[in-house]
């Protein structure tokens, strides 16, 4: 089995890491950072002064004490590149790219520091006992991996996930390719039969990685997401899942309706509203009302939203993983403490007052069917509650934001939703909306949500797994130790029954057809918005109910137009987990009816 040059290079990671960091520092050292500087480097002013006496300076990396020359800043400058070249490179780079390189270097350092946690001791290379070749695709530089993983995150035409689409299109087999996020050799797999074959064998063929304890604690270290033992994972899923069964969701319907109504009531005729913001508030509202079952006073609601914001923002901020010990002094730590205090208060109230309809109550009183003496302990309830807030808020808010854009662009779809609601209300006069009604009387709403999630599912990957043994997919080997991930967007995009060469089957203007879901002959089968296998989305019932409740109530009450977006100028945010419209689906409200009245048309 021959090795490519990059595969060989990966064997000499330490030396190469130093070289890469040095080069990155050479470039970043010549950067002009905005006023205020960076969290890592402080005020690092631009343009390393040209080295006077030689074309290259003497030491590979120099800490140039600038204080004498320019006040107090200390500049990290490198002399691997001639200053004129460094300056040229730096001035030709966009600020985004400069930051990408800067943070890329920091992330590479973090991965190197934690290499034994992330990587097996022997870096994976092709398995010589298999004749099959590795999948197509470049592994980029060691430790940094594919630079385009950072620079080609998204594009305005299709949104986030551009890197994966590019790698797939470059591979001779678009359903599998290799790449190296942060230098870790990995593969991405698409196509339902491939994804099922690999991810149905979670815990045996592939397994999620273990994350650093301190960092993991911040978002539920004892949650089922980090359970790598199949029995423990199943135990946690059984107990946490008891609070999200269809029956439990039916109990939750009044809370979901209250949350949706509260947000729709903030809209006013003639106003312009960024629906992404409204919908984020809606999913956070669901979090405190339904998941935590809290009774927040008006003035506390903003504190709760702020805390969730700071907490999620902090988890995504590289400073948190670089310096976990500083967490308690930062906003993220304070937000975490606040959320835990709310969860603790709720646990006390459940102990005192018995069960209510909240998800936390479901967890607190859940007993294992196999062994009723087994219950979730306090830490497990806290961890899994945090996981549900994290997993459920952004995903549902983004999907609903795309739904708003789809409704704004396809007025016929809005009309069909309104008509369906009108029919449902006249059938169930005076009754409150139930989950059963949504299931049985709203086939168009169901088809509409499915189509939104087909066109814009998770465009990045699911959680990274690691292969436990070498296996074959589409005639290519995935060696033991490789990272393994699925990609829902590519799976939907490559559906042979739908695929149009110009990509229009994934276009929200040309390809959006909810009706395709209403006929068995046209129903897509390459479809996995909620994942596959033992880690299939545990919140699927809650997610679908909350999205359908919002859309049903919105369609009943609101008529609107897109403020700026037309079918010709749809643009997407570059960075998001699920692609989102660039303007956050900015709408102008034309009319809005009272919650007690019927549909406005
Ligand atoms: C539109 C909304 C949602 C989408 C698109 C979505 C998507 C997904 C996907 C693709 C996975 C699998 C990840 C993987 O295998 O790597 C997943 C897992 C999960 N989801 Fe969702 N999700 C949504 C809403 C929710 C909600 C509302 C909750 C709960 C409140 C939730 C809780 C979870 C949990 C706990 C897991 C981990 C399951 C496990 O590891 O066993 N999700 N979700």
From TrEMBL:
<dbReference type="InterPro" id="IPR002401">
    <property type="entry name" value="Cyt_P450_E_grp-I"/>
</dbReference>
<dbReference type="GO" id="GO:0046872">
    <property type="term" value="F:metal ion binding"/>
</dbReference>
<dbReference type="InterPro" id="IPR017972">
    <property type="entry name" value="Cyt_P450_CS"/>
</dbReference>
<protein>
    <recommendedName>
        <fullName>Cytochrome P450</fullName>
    </recommendedName>
</protein>
<keyword id="KW-0560">Oxidoreductase</keyword>
<comment type="similarity">
    <text>Belongs to the cytochrome P450 family.</text>
</comment>
<keyword id="KW-0349">Heme</keyword>
<feature type="binding site" description="axial binding residue">
    <location>
        <position position="537"/>
    </location>
    <ligand>
        <name>heme</name>
    </ligand>
</feature>
<dbReference type="InterPro" id="IPR050121">
    <property type="entry name" value="Cytochrome_P450_monoxygenase"/>
</dbReference>
<keyword id="KW-0408">Iron</keyword>
<dbReference type="GO" id="GO:0004497">
    <property type="term" value="F:monooxygenase activity"/>
</dbReference>
<keyword id="KW-0479">Metal-binding</keyword>
<dbReference type="InterPro" id="IPR036396">
    <property type="entry name" value="Cyt_P450_sf"/>
</dbReference>
<dbReference type="InterPro" id="IPR001128">
    <property type="entry name" value="Cyt_P450"/>
</dbReference>
<dbReference type="Pfam" id="PF00067">
    <property type="entry name" value="p450"/>
</dbReference>
<keyword id="KW-0503">Monooxygenase</keyword>
């Amino acid at each position: 089995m021959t090795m490519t040059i990059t595969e060989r290079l990966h064997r000499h990671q330490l030396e190469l890491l130093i070289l890469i960091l040095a080069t990155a520092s050479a470039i970043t050292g010549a950067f002009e950072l905005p006023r205020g500087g960076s969290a890592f480097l402080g005020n690092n002013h631009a343009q390393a002064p040209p080295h006077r006496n030689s074309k290259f300076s003497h030491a590979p990396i120099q800490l140039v004490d600038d204080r004498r020359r320019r006040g107090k800043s200390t500049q990290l400058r490198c002399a691997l590149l001639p200053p004129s070249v460094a300056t040229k490179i730096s001035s030709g780079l966009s600020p985004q790219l400069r930051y990408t390189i800067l943070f890329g270097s920091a992330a590479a350092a973090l991965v190197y520091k934690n290499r034994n946690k992330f990587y097996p001791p022997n870096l994976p290379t092709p398995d010589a006992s298999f004749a099959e070749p590795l999948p197509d695709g470049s592994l980029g530089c060691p430790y940094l991996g594919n630079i385009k993983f950072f620079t080609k995150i998204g594009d305005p035409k299709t949104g986030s996930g551009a890197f994966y689409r590019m790698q797939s299109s470059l591979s001779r087999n678009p359903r599998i390719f290799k790449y190296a996020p942060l230098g870790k050799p990995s593969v991405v797999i698409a196509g339902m039969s491939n994804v099922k074959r690999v991810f149905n064998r979670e815990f045996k063929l592939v397994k999620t990685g273990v994350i650093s304890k301190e960092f993991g604690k911040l978002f539920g270290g004892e949650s089922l997401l980090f359970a790598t033992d199949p029995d423990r994972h199943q135990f946690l899923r059984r107990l946490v899942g008891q609070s999200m069964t269809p029956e439990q969701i039916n109990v939750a319907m009044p809370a979901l309706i209250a949350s949706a109504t509260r947000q729709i009531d903030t809209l006013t005729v003639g106003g312009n509203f960024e629906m992404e913001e409204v919908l984020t508030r809606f999913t956070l509202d669901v979090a405190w009302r339904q998941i935590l079952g809290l009774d927040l006073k008006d003035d506390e609601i903003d504190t709760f939203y702020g805390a969730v914001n700071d907490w999620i923002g902090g988890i995504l901020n590289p400073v948190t993983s670089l310096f976990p010990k500083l967490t308690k002094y930062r906003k993220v730590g304070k937000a975490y403490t606040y959320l835990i205090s709310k969860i603790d208060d709720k646990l006390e109230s459940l102990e005192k007052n018995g069960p209510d309809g909240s998800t936390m109550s479901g967890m607190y009183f859940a007993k294992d069917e196999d062994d009723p003496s087994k219950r979730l302990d306090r830490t497990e309830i806290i961890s899994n509650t945090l996981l549900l807030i994290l997993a459920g808020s952004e995903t549902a808010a983004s999907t609903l934001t795309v739904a708003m854009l789809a409704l704004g662009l396809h007025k016929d779809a809005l009309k069909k939703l309104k008509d369906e609601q009108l029919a449902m209300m006249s059938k169930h006069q005076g009754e409150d909306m139930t989950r059963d009604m949504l299931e049985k009387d709203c086939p168009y709403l169901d088809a509409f949500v499915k189509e939104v999630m087909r066109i814009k599912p998770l465009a990045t990957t699911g959680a990274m797994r690691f292969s436990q043994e070498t296996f074959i997919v589409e005639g290519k080997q995935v060696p033991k130790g490789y990272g393994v991930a699925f990609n829902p967007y590519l799976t939907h995009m490559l559906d042979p029954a739908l695929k149009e060469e110009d990509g229009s089957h994934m276009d929200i203007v040309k390809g959006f057809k909810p009706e395709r879901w209403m006929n068995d002959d046209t129903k897509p089968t390459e479809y996995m918005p909620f994942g596959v296998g033992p880690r299939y989305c545990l919140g699927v019932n809650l997610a679908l109910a909350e999205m359908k409740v919002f859309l049903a109530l919105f369609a009943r009450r609101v008529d609107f137009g897109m403020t700026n977006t037309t079918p010709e100028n749809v643009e997407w945010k570059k960075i998001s987990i699920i692609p989102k419209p660039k303007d956050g689906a900015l709408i102008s409200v034309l009319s809005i009816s009272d919650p007690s009245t019927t549909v406005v048309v």
